[in-house]
Amino acid sequence: MPALASRFPSRGALAVALVASVCCALATPAHATQLAPAIDIQGKGMSARSASVGLRGLGNGVASLQLVKPANVAFALLYWSGQDRPCPKSGSTCVIPAQPYRDQQLIFDGKPVTGTIIGTEQQPASADGASNNIAYQADVTAIVNAEAPGPLSLPLSDANLSSNLAKLDGASLIVGYEDQAVAQVRRLIVFDGLDFALGNDATAGPSRTTAPVVFGHGAAALARSADLSLVVGGASAAGADRIAVSGQPTIANCLNAGSGSAWDHDSIPVSIPAGAASTTVQAISPAGVANPDYLNWVAATLLIPIDGPAAPAVSSCPAQAPEPVPSPSPGAEPAPAPSAPATDSAPATDSVAPVLSGLRVGPRAGARTRVRFALSEAANVRFVVERRRAGRFIRVRRAFALNGRTGANGFRLRARLRNAALRPGRYRLRALATDAAGNRSDLARRRFRIVR
User: Which residue range is the domain that position 368 belongs to?
Assistant: First the structure.
């Protein structure tokens, strides 16, 4: 990779990198399309921002991607995915007869965009017939760069209402840029595609699983903190899922439609030991549970410093007990989980869900907006801020989480949004508490208004 005297690759070089990652996606649409490298870029102050929104039930409506646009955008990629059910077939195989296909065309920020199919995977057995899971990507760098830096509300709508997938899960915008306030050299790696998993898939043979993504970021003499994010469609708050990261505790039940409808774009801080040259990540729909999540894994990004430690990212997922990371080799058996130390008696199982009560937001003026709530026990609490637009609530910015203590808790909302101000308007805050045993509270909601 070149040292970035010009800081970022030219638009032409970026386009070549994208084509190389998607040129073969349609060769065998019935088979798994595991995530593959799409972007690998590094330079002084390299950073990333994103915006996401659920699209279930979009119809002829308009969704909105909320983004604070930076000044020096290197690339902007728009992802969306859904399910073609029942799919057209050639023999027993789902096919895409012609392009542009269903929901391949959108209106983004007032401009028509046609996505490239970056992956498909067939689910042969479902209640509604064979399903073909499809993911699209569009390079919208020019559209984003045409906007002035600052807070943006980027509208997203269907460009062809007569050609729709059975379910359109959601959309995410990933923006890579140079932060001139950061002197550190960083590397940003993006994988994308479409990898489907369902732990109780009815198709004969092993349950559908995803292939692990291996970020080959290179080794360093010092331990480092990196920012990992996953874009996944199809999950729900009621379903079970796992995110396995090498050398980290497994994260349970993070994929819960936190971006709305059936869409997740979650951030996870990752600790990378000195000398480690790669980090392995896998989104898992676990077998042997009552309700495994339906997962369409679309993208994964890793932002890692080259020359030293970095401030860890804010996690939007509660950490759980360590579990083994599956091997990157197809068909390989995972290593056994470490055994627990011997005890005189088995520990009691915690089956009592935490209670989150008294959720309040106020006063309503921007920087002073404070959130208060109470917990029946210590728990990790995940928050989502939504803004009311055109009669519906649309998520703004990423979800965030904090560890709450038993009793009263509070924080300033703007600080948790990375000091980004909310525009005047009507909002809703959603909160969900998860204790150390994985028990979840009821979802709490509180409406509030921001005034000047």
Answer: 356-450
